[in-house]
Write a structure and sequence with these properties.
By secondary structure, this protein is an alpha/beta fold. It is 41% helix and 18% strand. The strands form four sheets. The chain has a seven-stranded mixed beta sheet with strand order 10-7-6-11-12-14-13, sandwiched between helices. Strands 1-2-3 form a three-stranded antiparallel beta sheet, with no helix packed on it.
Length: 453
């Protein structure tokens, strides 16, 4: 019997695509770039600028810890304020104590990331155009942890049934790209004949939990449901556990758009709930998946096709996706649509049914990979080129001037009508238009102030 494939044989430098070699110290190194890629709690940390990426994730952990501490302090203030119903006091004390306990649990869980903090080499990070998505925080997909490892058996089983139906009987080497909290990758490896399953995601919290569970550990964390059913459902302590997983399941931290793997490394690539949230055109993503697949390899997609980029031409229908696949080296495209439960926490009223769109497509010809993904334009990277007068910048500048003028008029005496007349006298806008603009602006400011108190 042939030796099982090894993860190290598949890894490539996310900067230059050269094969990585095991480092003398922990982790891997690119001998061409002279970059050391460390291990984080035993997991390869394969971002193009590893020190800077670690610094950003450290900042996001600290932000979440501050948020938990601030929420606990705010609850203390409410508890010491006006008289409360006994039931209300009990609920607030419960959530406050849960926030403080979660603070400690999260600090312990993230200690491998926080230990030995290094200065983020921001200049290198910017030069490589590999910044982390600003809309993806540490907790963005935190609810998935509890779905995957606590209460989501029905949802997890539905996902596995769909994906397994689209995979070959013997899938060989499998990559789960954007694996999230990791349950689908674990189930795929456990219940199929995959030789090697590699799960890749950029979030160290999600993978830190999944890796621990995969090692047979138990993790306890609090769930904070979106729409709690009862008082104690505002914060629920969950015990996260996983069944044993056979050897051959690997977790890698990295960017899906700079996937750190050699050309043709995988017999199957699975993209769960991913293709519509990545900031690239679907055709570019198809070319990147094509690059990662071996000849006759299979791409299996599962999840949403709710594309929402600024350009309407990129908001593809399923039929347009199929045509795009065929233009980018894929054939034998099959698809299915299934209604499945989605995020149906027993502690929340927010669960719903989603229609998941799945397809499988076979790589029939090689498609040249696009240039390495770059998240930033040249004028931001070098700092030497002229900043373009983009319409959005010009609109924001005009808005800021007007709103700064309005804020300067607030003296506790002037009314909205007074302010609108002054805007008209300054020839900034007509009074009728100014009245609505000022009212909308002050409404947002007022509502924001109430949320922050």
């Amino acid at each position: 019997m042939a030796d099982a494939p090894q993860l190290a044989d598949l890894l490539a430098c996310p900067r230059c695509d050269a094969a990585l070699a095991p480092a003398q110290r922990d982790g891997f190194e690119c001998r061409g770039c002279q970059v050391h890629y460390p291990l984080l709690d035993g997991l390869p940390f394969l971002f193009a600028a590893p020190h800077a990426a670690r610094g950003e994730w450290q900042a996001r952990v600290h932000h979440e810890l501050r948020r938990l501490a601030a929420r606990a302090e705010k609850l203390d203030t409410e508890l010491s304020g006006n008289p409360l119903l006994p039931l209300t006091r009990e609920r607030l004390e419960w959530v406050r104590d849960a926030c403080r306990d979660q603070h400690g649990k999260l600090t312990s869980l993230m200690s491998p990331l926080l230990a030995g903090s290094e200065a983020a080499a921001r200049e290198t990070y910017i030069a490589l155009r590999t910044r982390l998505p600003s809309d993806q925080g540490l907790n963005t997909y935190y609810q998935n942890v509890h779905r995957d490892w606590a209460w989501g058996d029905k949802e997890n089983a539905a996902a596995l049934d769909i994906v397994a139906s689209l995979l070959p009987a013997a899938p060989g080497k499998v990559l789960v790209l954007g694996a999230g909290a990791g349950r689908l990758a674990c189930d795929t490896h456990r219940y199929t004949a995959a030789e090697l399953t590699v799960a890749l995601d950029f979030n160290p919290l999600l993978f830190g939990i999944a890796a621990r569970l995969g090692r047979g550990e138990t993790v306890e964390l609090w769930e904070f449901p979106i729409a709690p059913r009862r008082a104690r459902d505002h914060a629920v302590l969950r015990k996260l556990e996983a069944e044993g997983v056979r050897p051959g399941l690997e977790f890698v931290l990295g960017d899906a758009l700079r996937a750190p793997f050699n050309k043709g490394s995988f017999d199957a690539v699975i993209t769960p709930w991913l293709v519509d949230i990545l900031p690239v055109d679907f055709a570019e993503l198809a070319a990147r998946i094509n690059y990662l697949l071996a000849p006759a390899g299979r791409w299996v997609n599962f999840g949403s096709l709710a594309f929402d980029p600024p350009a309407e031409a990129q908001r593809l229908t399923l039929e347009e996706c199929v045509a795009t696949l065929e233009q980018n080296g894929f054939s034998d495209v099959e698809h299915r649509e299934d209604q499945i439960p989605y995020m149906c926490s027993p502690a929340s009223r927010h669960g719903r049914v989603e229609e998941a769109v799945s397809f499988r497509a076979t790589k029939s010809r090689h498609r040249k990979a696009p240039h390495r993904y770059q998240s930033l334009p040249e004028w931001l990277v070098t700092g030497k080129e002229a900043v373009p007068a983009l319409p959005a910048f010009q609109l924001q500048a005009a808005s800021n001037r007007i709103f700064a003028f309005v804020m300067g008029l607030i003296d506790g005496k002037r009314s909205i009508d007074d302010m609108a007349q002054l805007l008209e006298s300054q020839r900034l806008m007509q009074k009728q238009e100014a009245d609505g603009v000022i009212r909308d602006f002050l409404t947002r400011m007022y509502e924001d102030s109430r949320r922050s108190n």
